[in-house]
Amino acid sequence: MIHQSLKCHKAAILLGGHSSRMGGQPKFLLKDGKGQSYLKRQIKALEKADRIYLSAADAAQLALIQNVYKDKDCYGLIDVVKDCGPLGGLYTVLQQLKDEDEWIFVTACDVPELTESMVGSLIQMSEDAYEQGYDCMVYQDSRGRIHPLCGLYRPSLLPVIQQMLRYKDYKMMHLLIRSRCLIVSSAEMGIPDTCFVNINTPEAYERWKNTSLNMPKEQKILCICGIKNSGKTTYIEKLLKEIKSHGKSAAVIKHDGHDFEGDRPGTDTYRYHQAGAAATAIFSKNRYMINADEEIDLQQLINGFSDADVILVEGMKQSELPKIEIVREKISRTLSCCGKNLIAVVTDCEADFDGIEKWPLEDCSRCLNYLLQGGLRC
User: Fold this and answer.
1) 155 and 105, same structural domain?
2) Domain ranges, residue 325
Protein backbone atom coordinates (compact mmCIF):
# COMPACT_ATOMS: atom_id res chain seq x y z
CA MET A 1 0.00 0.00 0.00
CA ILE A 2 1.47 3.31 -1.04
CA HIS A 3 1.10 5.97 1.60
CA GLN A 4 -0.34 9.42 1.13
CA SER A 5 1.47 12.63 2.04
CA LEU A 6 1.94 13.48 5.69
CA LYS A 7 1.09 17.11 5.00
CA CYS A 8 -1.22 18.78 7.56
CA HIS A 9 -0.55 16.12 10.20
CA LYS A 10 1.43 16.49 13.39
CA ALA A 11 3.98 14.15 14.93
CA ALA A 12 5.64 13.76 18.31
CA ILE A 13 8.77 12.00 19.54
CA LEU A 14 8.86 11.04 23.21
CA LEU A 15 12.44 11.50 24.40
CA GLY A 16 12.17 9.25 27.44
CA GLY A 17 13.26 9.57 31.03
CA HIS A 18 16.42 8.62 32.87
CA SER A 19 17.66 5.90 30.44
CA SER A 20 18.71 3.84 33.45
CA ARG A 21 19.13 0.65 31.42
CA MET A 22 21.47 2.57 29.09
CA GLY A 23 23.60 3.73 32.01
CA GLY A 24 22.05 7.19 31.94
CA GLN A 25 23.10 7.92 28.36
CA PRO A 26 20.28 9.74 26.51
CA LYS A 27 19.00 7.35 23.88
CA PHE A 28 18.07 10.11 21.45
CA LEU A 29 21.79 10.99 21.14
CA LEU A 30 22.91 7.45 20.29
CA LYS A 31 24.31 7.18 16.77
CA ASP A 32 24.46 4.62 14.02
CA GLY A 33 27.70 3.66 12.32
CA LYS A 34 27.50 6.71 10.04
CA GLY A 35 27.31 9.07 12.99
CA GLN A 36 23.62 9.86 12.56
CA SER A 37 21.63 9.95 15.79
CA TYR A 38 18.38 8.16 16.52
CA LEU A 39 16.61 11.48 16.63
CA LYS A 40 17.91 12.72 13.29
CA ARG A 41 16.81 9.45 11.67
CA GLN A 42 13.32 9.91 13.10
CA ILE A 43 13.05 13.57 12.17
CA LYS A 44 13.96 12.57 8.62
CA ALA A 45 11.15 9.99 8.59
CA LEU A 46 8.70 12.61 9.88
CA GLU A 47 9.86 15.52 7.73
CA LYS A 48 6.54 15.80 5.85
CA ALA A 49 4.61 16.45 9.04
CA ASP A 50 3.68 20.12 9.33
CA ARG A 51 4.79 20.16 12.98
CA ILE A 52 7.03 17.88 15.07
CA TYR A 53 6.91 18.00 18.87
CA LEU A 54 9.80 16.80 21.02
CA SER A 55 8.47 15.80 24.43
CA ALA A 56 11.21 16.08 27.07
CA ALA A 57 11.20 14.80 30.64
CA ASP A 58 12.48 18.08 32.09
CA ALA A 59 13.97 21.47 31.25
CA ALA A 60 17.55 20.14 31.23
CA GLN A 61 16.70 17.49 28.66
CA LEU A 62 14.86 20.01 26.52
CA ALA A 63 17.81 22.43 26.68
CA LEU A 64 20.15 19.66 25.54
CA ILE A 65 17.89 18.86 22.60
CA GLN A 66 17.46 22.48 21.58
CA ASN A 67 21.23 22.99 21.66
CA VAL A 68 21.92 19.93 19.49
CA TYR A 69 18.99 20.36 17.10
CA LYS A 70 18.63 24.12 17.02
CA ASP A 71 18.48 24.07 13.22
CA LYS A 72 15.44 21.80 13.17
CA ASP A 73 11.90 23.12 12.95
CA CYS A 74 10.71 21.21 16.03
CA TYR A 75 8.70 22.35 19.03
CA GLY A 76 9.89 21.42 22.49
CA LEU A 77 7.54 20.35 25.29
CA ILE A 78 8.24 19.51 28.93
CA ASP A 79 6.21 16.71 30.48
CA VAL A 80 3.44 18.16 32.63
CA VAL A 81 3.40 14.98 34.73
CA LYS A 82 6.68 13.48 35.94
CA ASP A 83 7.96 9.91 36.10
CA CYS A 84 4.91 8.42 34.39
CA GLY A 85 6.73 6.87 31.45
CA PRO A 86 5.46 7.14 27.87
CA LEU A 87 1.91 7.68 29.10
CA GLY A 88 3.00 10.96 30.68
CA GLY A 89 4.67 12.05 27.46
CA LEU A 90 1.58 11.16 25.44
CA TYR A 91 -0.58 13.12 27.87
CA THR A 92 1.67 16.16 27.46
CA VAL A 93 1.49 15.97 23.67
CA LEU A 94 -2.29 15.51 23.53
CA GLN A 95 -2.74 18.43 25.92
CA GLN A 96 -1.23 20.64 23.21
CA LEU A 97 -4.00 19.53 20.85
CA LYS A 98 -6.92 19.43 23.25
CA ASP A 99 -8.75 22.12 21.30
CA GLU A 100 -8.11 20.37 17.97
CA ASP A 101 -9.80 17.09 17.13
CA GLU A 102 -7.11 15.63 14.89
CA TRP A 103 -4.65 12.78 14.77
CA ILE A 104 -1.03 13.01 15.86
CA PHE A 105 1.59 10.36 15.17
CA VAL A 106 3.47 9.41 18.33
CA THR A 107 6.67 7.41 18.62
CA ALA A 108 9.52 6.95 21.09
CA CYS A 109 13.11 8.04 20.55
CA ASP A 110 14.40 4.46 20.81
CA VAL A 111 12.74 3.25 17.58
CA PRO A 112 15.55 4.17 15.15
CA GLU A 113 14.20 2.27 12.11
CA LEU A 114 11.05 4.37 11.79
CA THR A 115 10.20 5.14 8.15
CA GLU A 116 7.99 7.63 6.38
CA SER A 117 5.93 4.77 4.98
CA MET A 118 5.11 3.45 8.47
CA VAL A 119 3.54 6.80 9.31
CA GLY A 120 1.89 7.30 5.95
CA SER A 121 0.20 3.90 5.92
CA LEU A 122 -1.67 4.78 9.12
CA ILE A 123 -2.53 8.26 7.88
CA GLN A 124 -4.02 6.73 4.76
CA MET A 125 -6.46 4.87 7.01
CA SER A 126 -7.06 7.70 9.46
CA GLU A 127 -10.11 9.31 7.85
CA ASP A 128 -12.10 6.07 7.92
CA ALA A 129 -10.89 5.35 11.46
CA TYR A 130 -12.03 8.81 12.56
CA GLU A 131 -15.49 8.31 11.06
CA GLN A 132 -15.76 4.96 12.85
CA GLY A 133 -14.98 6.60 16.18
CA TYR A 134 -11.52 5.20 16.91
CA ASP A 135 -9.31 7.05 19.40
CA CYS A 136 -6.00 5.50 18.36
CA MET A 137 -4.38 3.31 15.72
CA VAL A 138 -1.31 1.15 16.39
CA TYR A 139 0.61 -1.60 14.63
CA GLN A 140 0.72 -5.30 15.39
CA ASP A 141 3.70 -7.12 13.90
CA SER A 142 3.78 -10.59 12.34
CA ARG A 143 4.60 -12.18 15.71
CA GLY A 144 1.47 -10.70 17.26
CA ARG A 145 3.26 -8.03 19.27
CA ILE A 146 1.47 -4.68 19.53
CA HIS A 147 3.51 -1.47 19.34
CA PRO A 148 1.79 1.39 21.21
CA LEU A 149 4.64 3.81 20.53
CA CYS A 150 4.24 3.71 16.79
CA GLY A 151 0.73 4.95 16.20
CA LEU A 152 -1.83 7.69 15.73
CA TYR A 153 -3.64 9.19 18.73
CA ARG A 154 -6.45 11.72 19.26
CA PRO A 155 -7.11 14.18 22.12
CA SER A 156 -10.36 12.29 22.79
CA LEU A 157 -8.15 9.98 24.90
CA LEU A 158 -7.32 12.69 27.45
CA PRO A 159 -10.10 11.79 29.96
CA VAL A 160 -9.01 8.14 29.91
CA ILE A 161 -5.35 9.06 30.40
CA GLN A 162 -6.20 11.45 33.23
CA GLN A 163 -8.05 8.68 35.05
CA MET A 164 -5.14 6.27 34.55
CA LEU A 165 -2.67 8.83 35.89
CA ARG A 166 -4.90 9.42 38.90
CA TYR A 167 -4.77 5.70 39.73
CA LYS A 168 -1.04 5.46 38.89
CA ASP A 169 -1.66 3.04 36.03
CA TYR A 170 1.03 3.95 33.51
CA LYS A 171 0.88 0.96 31.16
CA MET A 172 0.36 1.90 27.51
CA MET A 173 -1.27 -1.44 26.77
CA HIS A 174 -3.92 -0.68 29.40
CA LEU A 175 -4.67 2.54 27.55
CA LEU A 176 -5.27 0.62 24.33
CA ILE A 177 -7.60 -1.78 26.13
CA ARG A 178 -9.60 1.07 27.64
CA SER A 179 -9.94 3.00 24.37
CA ARG A 180 -11.38 2.40 20.95
CA CYS A 181 -8.14 1.25 19.33
CA LEU A 182 -7.72 0.07 15.76
CA ILE A 183 -5.02 -2.62 15.53
CA VAL A 184 -3.33 -2.56 12.12
CA SER A 185 -1.39 -5.54 10.77
CA SER A 186 2.07 -4.34 9.78
CA ALA A 187 2.50 -7.37 7.50
CA GLU A 188 -0.55 -6.35 5.49
CA MET A 189 1.01 -2.91 5.08
CA GLY A 190 4.24 -4.48 3.83
CA ILE A 191 6.19 -3.36 6.91
CA PRO A 192 8.72 -5.88 8.24
CA ASP A 193 9.15 -6.55 11.94
CA THR A 194 12.68 -5.13 11.83
CA CYS A 195 11.17 -1.64 11.54
CA PHE A 196 9.94 -1.90 15.13
CA VAL A 197 13.29 -2.69 16.71
CA ASN A 198 13.47 -1.11 20.16
CA ILE A 199 16.83 -0.28 21.75
CA ASN A 200 16.86 -0.37 25.55
CA THR A 201 20.24 -1.81 26.60
CA PRO A 202 23.90 -1.28 25.65
CA GLU A 203 23.98 -4.85 24.28
CA ALA A 204 20.96 -4.24 22.04
CA TYR A 205 22.50 -0.98 20.88
CA GLU A 206 25.77 -2.63 19.86
CA ARG A 207 23.91 -5.35 17.98
CA TRP A 208 21.82 -2.81 16.13
CA LYS A 209 24.78 -0.54 15.41
CA ASN A 210 26.73 -3.41 13.89
CA THR A 211 23.87 -4.34 11.57
CA SER A 212 22.50 -0.88 10.79
CA LEU A 213 22.44 0.81 7.42
CA ASN A 214 26.07 1.83 7.54
CA MET A 215 27.15 -1.79 7.05
CA PRO A 216 27.65 -3.32 3.58
CA LYS A 217 24.34 -3.96 1.92
CA GLU A 218 22.76 -7.37 2.03
CA GLN A 219 21.11 -7.48 -1.35
CA LYS A 220 17.91 -9.37 -1.89
CA ILE A 221 17.67 -10.98 -5.31
CA LEU A 222 14.35 -12.34 -6.54
CA CYS A 223 13.31 -13.72 -9.91
CA ILE A 224 9.80 -12.86 -11.11
CA CYS A 225 8.73 -15.68 -13.41
CA GLY A 226 5.66 -16.58 -15.44
CA ILE A 227 4.55 -17.39 -18.95
CA LYS A 228 3.88 -14.69 -21.55
CA ASN A 229 1.08 -12.24 -20.62
CA SER A 230 0.90 -13.51 -17.05
CA GLY A 231 1.44 -9.98 -15.74
CA LYS A 232 5.11 -9.99 -14.74
CA THR A 233 5.83 -6.44 -15.88
CA THR A 234 2.75 -4.97 -14.19
CA TYR A 235 3.58 -6.77 -10.94
CA ILE A 236 7.20 -5.58 -11.03
CA GLU A 237 6.04 -1.99 -11.62
CA LYS A 238 3.83 -2.10 -8.51
CA LEU A 239 6.60 -3.70 -6.48
CA LEU A 240 9.14 -1.06 -7.55
CA LYS A 241 6.86 1.75 -6.34
CA GLU A 242 6.45 0.07 -2.96
CA ILE A 243 10.18 -0.54 -2.57
CA LYS A 244 10.90 3.11 -3.35
CA SER A 245 8.22 4.28 -0.87
CA HIS A 246 10.14 2.40 1.85
CA GLY A 247 13.29 4.34 1.06
CA LYS A 248 15.02 1.46 -0.71
CA SER A 249 16.55 1.23 -4.18
CA ALA A 250 15.87 -1.51 -6.70
CA ALA A 251 17.41 -2.61 -9.98
CA VAL A 252 15.66 -4.74 -12.60
CA ILE A 253 17.32 -7.21 -14.95
CA LYS A 254 15.19 -8.64 -17.77
CA HIS A 255 16.12 -11.95 -19.34
CA ASP A 256 15.14 -12.52 -22.96
CA GLY A 257 15.02 -16.16 -23.99
CA HIS A 258 15.42 -15.25 -27.66
CA ASP A 259 17.20 -12.06 -28.71
CA PHE A 260 16.48 -8.35 -28.72
CA GLU A 261 17.49 -5.07 -30.31
CA GLY A 262 19.19 -2.93 -27.70
CA ASP A 263 18.81 0.36 -29.52
CA ARG A 264 16.27 2.01 -31.78
CA PRO A 265 16.70 3.03 -35.43
CA GLY A 266 17.62 6.64 -36.01
CA THR A 267 19.85 7.22 -32.98
CA ASP A 268 23.56 7.88 -33.42
CA THR A 269 24.47 4.83 -31.35
CA TYR A 270 22.23 2.64 -33.53
CA ARG A 271 23.99 3.92 -36.64
CA TYR A 272 27.39 3.21 -35.08
CA HIS A 273 26.27 -0.33 -34.31
CA GLN A 274 24.99 -0.85 -37.84
CA ALA A 275 28.30 0.45 -39.16
CA GLY A 276 30.18 -2.29 -37.34
CA ALA A 277 30.85 -1.13 -33.76
CA ALA A 278 31.23 -4.13 -31.43
CA ALA A 279 29.89 -2.01 -28.58
CA THR A 280 28.42 1.44 -28.09
CA ALA A 281 27.87 3.61 -25.05
CA ILE A 282 26.11 6.87 -24.33
CA PHE A 283 26.18 8.82 -21.08
CA SER A 284 25.17 12.10 -19.48
CA LYS A 285 25.52 13.47 -15.97
CA ASN A 286 22.37 11.56 -14.96
CA ARG A 287 22.54 8.18 -16.70
CA TYR A 288 24.37 5.94 -19.13
CA MET A 289 23.66 3.00 -21.44
CA ILE A 290 25.96 0.34 -22.88
CA ASN A 291 25.06 -1.93 -25.80
CA ALA A 292 27.51 -4.73 -26.53
CA ASP A 293 27.43 -7.74 -28.87
CA GLU A 294 28.87 -10.27 -26.47
CA GLU A 295 27.68 -12.89 -24.04
CA ILE A 296 27.23 -11.96 -20.40
CA ASP A 297 25.98 -14.03 -17.49
CA LEU A 298 23.48 -13.00 -14.85
CA GLN A 299 26.04 -12.78 -12.04
CA GLN A 300 28.08 -10.22 -13.96
CA LEU A 301 25.00 -8.04 -14.28
CA ILE A 302 24.15 -8.49 -10.61
CA ASN A 303 27.69 -7.43 -9.68
CA GLY A 304 27.15 -4.23 -11.64
CA PHE A 305 24.26 -3.24 -9.34
CA SER A 306 26.11 -3.44 -6.03
CA ASP A 307 24.48 -0.24 -4.74
CA ALA A 308 20.92 -1.54 -5.12
CA ASP A 309 19.10 -2.87 -2.06
CA VAL A 310 16.93 -5.18 -4.17
CA ILE A 311 17.56 -6.78 -7.56
CA LEU A 312 14.51 -8.08 -9.41
CA VAL A 313 15.12 -10.43 -12.32
CA GLU A 314 12.31 -10.87 -14.81
CA GLY A 315 12.52 -14.44 -16.04
CA MET A 316 15.27 -17.03 -15.34
CA LYS A 317 12.73 -19.63 -14.22
CA GLN A 318 15.34 -22.40 -14.41
CA SER A 319 17.86 -20.65 -12.19
CA GLU A 320 18.65 -21.63 -8.61
CA LEU A 321 17.91 -18.11 -7.37
CA PRO A 322 14.88 -17.48 -5.14
CA LYS A 323 11.86 -16.94 -7.35
CA ILE A 324 8.14 -16.39 -7.43
CA GLU A 325 5.85 -17.34 -10.30
CA ILE A 326 2.86 -15.34 -11.45
CA VAL A 327 -0.09 -17.49 -12.48
CA ARG A 328 -3.11 -15.60 -13.81
CA GLU A 329 -6.28 -17.65 -14.17
CA LYS A 330 -7.24 -16.21 -17.57
CA ILE A 331 -3.87 -17.24 -18.99
CA SER A 332 -2.89 -20.48 -17.23
CA ARG A 333 -3.45 -22.51 -14.07
CA THR A 334 -0.21 -24.49 -14.09
CA LEU A 335 3.36 -23.77 -13.01
CA SER A 336 6.20 -23.36 -15.49
CA CYS A 337 9.11 -22.87 -13.06
CA CYS A 338 11.93 -25.37 -12.89
CA GLY A 339 14.71 -25.75 -10.39
CA LYS A 340 14.75 -25.00 -6.69
CA ASN A 341 13.75 -22.08 -4.49
CA LEU A 342 10.22 -21.34 -5.66
CA ILE A 343 9.19 -19.11 -2.75
CA ALA A 344 5.55 -18.53 -3.64
CA VAL A 345 2.96 -18.49 -6.39
CA VAL A 346 1.42 -15.07 -7.01
CA THR A 347 -2.05 -15.80 -8.32
CA ASP A 348 -5.75 -15.07 -8.53
CA CYS A 349 -6.52 -18.80 -8.81
CA GLU A 350 -8.33 -20.75 -6.12
CA ALA A 351 -6.37 -23.90 -6.96
CA ASP A 352 -3.66 -25.33 -4.72
CA PHE A 353 -0.10 -25.54 -6.06
CA ASP A 354 1.32 -28.61 -4.33
CA GLY A 355 1.50 -26.86 -0.98
CA ILE A 356 3.53 -23.90 -2.26
CA GLU A 357 2.64 -20.65 -0.51
CA LYS A 358 0.15 -18.45 -2.40
CA TRP A 359 0.32 -14.66 -2.52
CA PRO A 360 -2.50 -12.48 -3.89
CA LEU A 361 -1.96 -11.16 -7.41
CA GLU A 362 -3.49 -7.73 -6.81
CA ASP A 363 -1.49 -6.97 -3.65
CA CYS A 364 2.31 -7.07 -3.62
CA SER A 365 2.64 -6.50 0.15
CA ARG A 366 3.52 -10.15 0.84
CA CYS A 367 6.36 -9.98 -1.65
CA LEU A 368 7.51 -6.64 -0.27
CA ASN A 369 7.52 -8.05 3.26
CA TYR A 370 9.61 -11.00 2.08
CA LEU A 371 12.15 -8.65 0.50
CA LEU A 372 12.40 -6.39 3.54
CA GLN A 373 12.44 -9.21 6.08
CA GLY A 374 15.04 -11.18 4.19
CA GLY A 375 18.14 -9.28 5.21
CA LEU A 376 17.04 -5.77 4.35
CA ARG A 377 16.24 -3.25 7.02
CA CYS A 378 13.31 -0.93 6.59
Assistant:
1) yes
2) 220-260+299-373
